[in-house]
Amino acid sequence: MLSSLKRFLIGRPLKSTELGEQKLNKTKALAILSSDALSSVAYGPEQILLVLITVSTAAFWYSIPIALGVLILLTALILSYRQIIFAYPHGGGAYVVSRENLGINPGLIAGGSLLVDYILTVAVSVSAGTDAITSAFPSLHQHNVLIAIIFVLFITTLNLRGVTESASILAYPVYLFVLALFILIGVGIYNIVTGHVSPELHTPIGTPVAGLSLFLLLRAFASGSSALTGVEAISNAIPNFKDPAPNNASRTLMAMGALLAILFSGIVFLAYYYGITPSGEETVVSKIADETFGRNFMYYFIQGTTALILILAANTGYSAFPLLAVNLAKDKFIPRMFTVRGDRLGYSNGITVLGIASIILIIIFKGETESLIPLYAVGVFIPFTLSQTGMIVKWVKEKPKGWVPKLIINSTGALISFIVTLMFFLTKFEQVWSILVFLPIIIIIFHRIKKHYELVGEQLRIKPGQTIKPIDGNVIIVPVAGITQVVENSINYATSLTDQVIAVYIAFEREDERIFEEKWNKWQPNVRLVTLQSQYRSIITPLTKFIDTVEKKASENNYRVTVLIPQFITKKSWHNILHNQSSLLIRAYLLFKRDVIVATVPYHFKK
Amino acid sequence: MLSSLKRFLIGRPLKSTELGEQKLNKTKALAILSSDALSSVAYGPEQILLVLITVSTAAFWYSIPIALGVLILLTALILSYRQIIFAYPHGGGAYVVSRENLGINPGLIAGGSLLVDYILTVAVSVSAGTDAITSAFPSLHQHNVLIAIIFVLFITTLNLRGVTESASILAYPVYLFVLALFILIGVGIYNIVTGHVSPELHTPIGTPVAGLSLFLLLRAFASGSSALTGVEAISNAIPNFKDPAPNNASRTLMAMGALLAILFSGIVFLAYYYGITPSGEETVVSKIADETFGRNFMYYFIQGTTALILILAANTGYSAFPLLAVNLAKDKFIPRMFTVRGDRLGYSNGITVLGIASIILIIIFKGETESLIPLYAVGVFIPFTLSQTGMIVKWVKEKPKGWVPKLIINSTGALISFIVTLMFFLTKFEQVWSILVFLPIIIIIFHRIKKHYELVGEQLRIKPGQTIKPIDGNVIIVPVAGITQVVENSINYATSLTDQVIAVYIAFEREDERIFEEKWNKWQPNVRLVTLQSQYRSIITPLTKFIDTVEKKASENNYRVTVLIPQFITKKSWHNILHNQSSLLIRAYLLFKRDVIVATVPYHFKK
């Protein structure tokens, strides 16, 4: 039943050879890999204005130069990542690039912060989208957490079905959002050009503003840069592209950069020209749409697609997290299970872990994850900086043909990313300090896990020339609880393997011991019986002591000890709750604590 | 660590021979077995007045004849149960008496309703006691459920420590409560006799009251009878008494009856003489204490001990439930685990199940379990009626010396109990109907469980003259995932048992298959290797198919198939999460679904 539910939700299993069909073309890839970056247009411009308003509305014109700064940063990042795509065609991303060029620890810093970051992406974007929806239907507001969790479960299920299927479903909302904003920007500019908007609404560029500090401008710039989170996703996900993967990925990246640049500058410009003041109740995009269209169909179309894309931004995390986890797991920094492909050829363990972790975050923060945004932004800019720096080192070391322009591009990217990172720490320390605690812990765990795998590998390896001494014989111990068919079945099996069979009976009362011995000797005179008395009504303690004695003697003679546990299996599995589960306990205890083989002889009931 | 926490909470394990030391003397037995009955004095009289006030305060004098009725019922019950104690010295109680004399189903009705009833006792009395405490400290009121749960956990732990220990701790509050009420009643009567209380406060006995129906009087009587819940506890718990158990139990029962009669009539009389009107805010006992002492130390002493005894009333459930469960389990109507004595010689499974079930009830009803009181009372009077009826049948059938007076006593008891039961159904049907749904369901489950155990017993039994055919040989299948020390260890073991060893390798890629075969043939040329390809990356499916094929062939030759699973055991148990747990899955699947022996060969890492 459970397995047919699984089939229904995620579909039939796919053969390994069907992997190629699960790859993405450019249109779909753009939709699922850029939803995070594009969605940030919905809140990035607002972040800039929210900082500037702390001085005065006259300072709003500074949003234009700040936006230009963000665009320069965007260009540098896009060009840098384009170079990374071609340099690391098997899916680079910050982890691989930093590790290869800067060393293990910088790689782990990049990988660790991205890993945490994708969880934050999912939690933050789903919470934001849920907020947008429940703002429209206030009666649902009290169920925010539940609704957010349902969205996470939905997106997780989609991703477990496989990348192409989720891409097919998610492509529409992303393109609708882009279309909606294009119409908004187009109509807005048309209105301005045709003189329908009063130029009085905004202060001209260059108006002097009292009390504006460089610190504040930097802070506004850092806030605006949070709109660039998500641009690294494509470089992580190259293996998901159709061949030729690097070319397709690079074109998709350029397209995303162009879209992001247009939408971002359009919104910033309209906000400036309309003189929009950000407020807690209404988003900047909503105000612009209201000014442009009034509350008609187009307004609701823009609001609806914005809410949707905020939720779908989570999907970028689902594309990038499992692939990053595979890279870390291949290098043995996280458990190997992340490298296993599931029924639908997705890395299902990564997808599931991401879903669970983000649900936990949503529950802990009761769906109010907005305060995590700066943390999430700084968690992106650290790996940005590291990967660009890695590329600088690569160019300087390898000096391939035409390396100088490449070096310049990556150096610009690295410098700006570094400055933005610094600014986050300088201007928003109280919101981002926790990353300085978490990152070292995560990196220590990474190293511990790697060390463990190395130890295991070493202990598993067969040294050349090493030979194992054949076993000379076997002793089989059969704990028996009575004279039954189940015991008979086990004794029959044991005697077919060796002559050294010992049945062990544990008596709680002295009386019992004698009676059982008599019965046994009549029934199985050829099998040796040992009875043990348990004053404390425990089975494991006297049994273990006895096994230890036998084991000691056996190892002296190069014999091995097997404990054979008779077990009946009831016809319906829930019937097992009516029976003592001591055999399970005994088995687990012996396996972990003693060096004996434990075998279970099942006796299946027919009724 | 878990085990030392257990030691700290419940103490060192006791030997079976120490059982005698865990038995109760009369003083302690009275304390722990009568707390339920005695505590009902705190609410029984109030229940009568609450019914009478629906007519007028003039009707309050009827509380005196009603109380006389309750006292007659009490006397009949005490004398009847005294007879049961001697007739069933191994612990009778309603279940055993009804089953032996009236048949299985009446016995199960009595047993089933008592089983549920003890759970209700714990939930209701702990909730009531918690309410009494949080009424004194209103700031705690919002934590009612949590506090009640903590009390349940505390009482559960005490009982897991063993009966004498819990008796030692619980005896003080019970006797303090009795002392407090004795002082209250004594001082109250002294005040009345010395003329300090105005006789104007109450209407004289015999005053005609308009609008008083027989139905109402019966309802008041039924409500007052709820003060008698708990008197059956001693007859259930005879095995807990020191020898001679029946004599000690009988004396304890008489003492409890006398105390209950004195306290009950004293409170009813004072309430009548003082003209106390029950109200939602303050209990009748509190009002009497206030009238008698004012709000001085004695008042708070009475209130405090009352709250305590309400909570401790739960303990009666803990004494009676496990013993009833043992009786039902011995007759195979409930799982056998209830017959096992724990470390401290108490029936720990019964104690634990009772604790968990009552916590669940408290959580479901959010600590407001007052509405369950009638249900709980009717759940007591059904077994009362059945056990007295059973005794009637016994006397009539066996006709021992002097049986006529015994018959009369039990007949009176049976008749009155039956009338009270009927009255509950007639006057409070909306609160007790659910027992008519639950009881049949519980009885059906009892029969299903018994049937299952009988089927199992029959299948386990070795038929005389039946012989089992010795096995002719063994095939051992070893699933291998690589060429490692762990595999070498398992192969070494397998070849020591039989020549028929087959290693199975499951390849996810066709390439893999060939490479592995080559390596294997170089490494273990004498062990046959079978490689299987798994297109869907599942291990269990191809492995099971292969095992089925081998199994079919083997059973034709009277061979048995063993699947030997190589498993490494990491040094620290939490390290296991870093490794695939597929061996556990394979083992469980094969044991339940296939008729093969499953053995695990552990390889313990040293680092």
UniProtKB/TrEMBL annotation, chains A, B:
Gene3D superfamilies: Amino acid/polyamine transporter I. It holds the Pfam family AA_permease_2. It is found in: Membrane. The chain crosses the membrane at residues 59-81, 102-128, 140-160, 172-193, 205-231, 252-274, 297-324, 345-365, 371-395, 407-426, 432-449. The keyword Transmembrane helix applies. Keywords: Membrane, Transmembrane, Transmembrane helix. This is Amino acid transporter.
